[in-house]
Amino acid sequence: MSDLSRRGLFGAVGVGGAAAGALVLAAAGSASPSSKEETVSDAYPYFGVHQGGIVTPAQDRMHFAAFDTAPGLDRDALIGLLRDWTDAASRMTQGGSAGELDAMSGSYDAPPEDTGEAYDLPPSGLTITFGFGPGLFLDAAGADRFGIAARRPAALERLPHFVADNLDPNLSDGDLCIQACAHDPQVAVHAIRNLTRIAFGRAVLRWSQLGFGRTSSTSVDQATPRNLFGFKDGTMGLRAEQTDLIDAHVWVQAGADPAADWLVGGSYMVARKIKMQIETWDRAPMREQENIVGRTKREGAPLSGGVEFDQPDFTLEGRGGVPVMDVASHVAIAHPDHNDGVQMLRRGYNYVDGNDQLGRLSAGLFFIAFVTDPRTHYIPMQSRLSRNDLMMEYLQHIGSGLWAVPPGVTEGEFVGQALFA
Amino acid sequence: MSDLSRRGLFGAVGVGGAAAGALVLAAAGSASPSSKEETVSDAYPYFGVHQGGIVTPAQDRMHFAAFDTAPGLDRDALIGLLRDWTDAASRMTQGGSAGELDAMSGSYDAPPEDTGEAYDLPPSGLTITFGFGPGLFLDAAGADRFGIAARRPAALERLPHFVADNLDPNLSDGDLCIQACAHDPQVAVHAIRNLTRIAFGRAVLRWSQLGFGRTSSTSVDQATPRNLFGFKDGTMGLRAEQTDLIDAHVWVQAGADPAADWLVGGSYMVARKIKMQIETWDRAPMREQENIVGRTKREGAPLSGGVEFDQPDFTLEGRGGVPVMDVASHVAIAHPDHNDGVQMLRRGYNYVDGNDQLGRLSAGLFFIAFVTDPRTHYIPMQSRLSRNDLMMEYLQHIGSGLWAVPPGVTEGEFVGQALFA
């Protein structure tokens, strides 16, 4: 794949990224837990029915960024930004430059159009996923700055306060968001950096997060990874191959919200920065850890028996008639059977942000889920988890955001174009 | 390599990590810039003449941590910590557990000995490198707490203030340090987390840093990577194959410091957290960027001509007799010809720590160099760079540390044992 660098590809992709079709990835999945660092250099197509980075097999690295629109931005300028972002994303995902010229070309008297740190690197499975926050429709002062308030999806409201929340406003919300995922973190960082640069004067980076390891599988070909509690995470999450369930639980369906028909084929992205008290967790006995999760640590099997993907038996009783699966275990409270059957496409990442002044690692889970409607598919479950989940003793939700994720882009269009039609 | 997980290896490695020899890595280098994410799952041997992580081909990911010893720690307890750290490092580098039992074994009534997030992962080329800071020999009050002050290497003093320094004490120094490098960041994070846990009550994490992408090559088989200025970095750095130069410029030689004979075969590690003003840099014209660096951005060739590894010609004049290589360019000031011939083994990493309140990415270079003597091999050069380097307009050194890196460990010993003999 040595020719699939940003250098070699530039000629083939051209300005519009038209060669995408030739580079479709056959299978990026990693069936073996030992091959976590796959050498997958290919590109996912940018244009399509849905945006990339949702049902795409979860890449190992992520850079997420949320933006505030600049105070003076008007509708045309917002559209201009979305068009520029779309063009850049269509190029970068195919291994090309953020700009029309590659990182090393152009006038010597001008800054390069691309910052260059990914110049020699292949596409690395990069996906770029854009989202629109509630503030884009109505700003803090209640103004409809972009003339789109009437088309705000009813579900697109700031997430409610959950009882155990300890949110930092500087790690929450944002009018716009971008999720960049790739096999190589330098490629994901390059994408966010260049999109931030392109936004200069139009949107400003509000908060951002690097994730170093995926905590979810979105394909049956991917082994379940472990979170920083040392447990397999995302076992119950939806997989791309479950197309009927994905339609039911992830994509916004026609007629779901007549005011927001522009969102059909899109989704909602919930992001939660969840700090883990890992030093405290590490002092908990194995029995307590497994009881809190509701699964064995080694295999990820329900404590009621079987193997990882077997269904838990919440009725099974142990000594003294006590349920083997604690009713307040994480699995019990999050299980679809206890949440009106709702499921989520989870796509989170482990993070470490250094350490605090007491020498504790600032570490945790950057939770991401894509759902068809947060009112049915996230808020009720999180309300229960926040109140009752035994795991909350070791968690703190410190950041939060909800964004509507427009459907995929047709070549020549920009992301979210139907919202402005 | 699917059997080389922490799970499969445990039996083979055993408590002492004795099976290391069978897992020696033949060649981890990545000759192609497109194969940055190598699937190198093997282990480097832990025991040897030198510690790993110095001339080891630079892995792509790093987690660095600096520690302060606990106030009440005495000599025996320090030795106990170093022995526990050595034992854990010898196991983890071979794909084993931090503890004597694997992450999933042991009593259900006790916390697991290993935190578990790397349980399914292969060794991933993990190296763990320990260093001793000046404060270990004489604490801030001038006390010789561990009875080793007389054996302090003369070169092991806090680095001097350089004129452009803007150091944060919370990102500087530390009695002890650990550099964990691996192909998989989860493996590097797991190592630092578990070593931090093992130190509980004896040493506390002072500061730490994740690096997502190497900015140096330490083997001729590795392509030169790019830093966040988009330029190839570390072209002039030493490579492991230059064994005579490595002996001269990296390893501490017998007789170099009679008081510190315990350091023979070791080295000094200089770490500098260098914040890059990337938004400003990105607005600089290509001509200015290249003039500042002294190299072409595309190929990394000296501006005086040739290809990447050609020597610059500092005498070449352009129009009006102006040197083609600016005398204040980074390459000119750092070049061995202008530094009494000294060379360094560079081993730094790109980092991004989120963003500041103005929406600028908190990004830069975590500079690491291993040298035989910082008084000759770092301080004079950095003094000149800090005063004269054109690049300083776009840089800010915000963290700093110097550590003596003991030689390699023989099985049954602990790291730095000769210091306490």
Task: Tell me what the structure shows.
Chains A, B: It comes from Tessaracoccus bendigoensis DSM 12906. Chains A, B: One of its GO terms (cellular component) is cytosol. Two copies of one chain form a homodimer. Chain A has 421 residues and is α+β, with helices and mostly antiparallel strands. Chain A has one domain. Chain A contains nine helices and ten strands. In chain A, strands 5, 6, 7, 8, 9 and 10 form a six-stranded antiparallel beta sheet that branches. In chain A, strand 8 (349-355) and strand 9 (361-371) form a beta hairpin. In chain A, helix 2 (75-92) packs antiparallel against helix 3 (185-198). The first copy, chain A, is globular. The two termini of chain A are 41 Å apart. Mean pLDDT of chain A is 91; it is low at 7-39. The interface between A and B is large, with 88 and 87 residues.
pLDDT average of chain A, as an integer?
A: 91
Shape of chain A: globular
Main sheet makeup of chain A: 6 strands, antiparallel
**Helix-strand string of chain A:** HEHEEHEEHEHHHEEEHHE
Q: How many independent structural domains of chain A?
A: 1
Number of strand elements of chain A: 10
Radius of gyration of chain A: 21 Å
Beta-strand fraction estimate of chain A: 15-25%
Pfam family, one (chains A, B): Dyp_perox_N
Function (chains A, B): Involved in the recovery of exogenous heme iron. Extracts iron from heme while preserving the protoporphyrin ring intact.
Enzyme class (chains A, B): oxidoreductase
InterPro entries (chains A, B): Dimeric_a/b-barrel, Dyp_perox_C, Dyp_perox_N, Dyp_peroxidase, EfeB/EfeN, TAT_signal
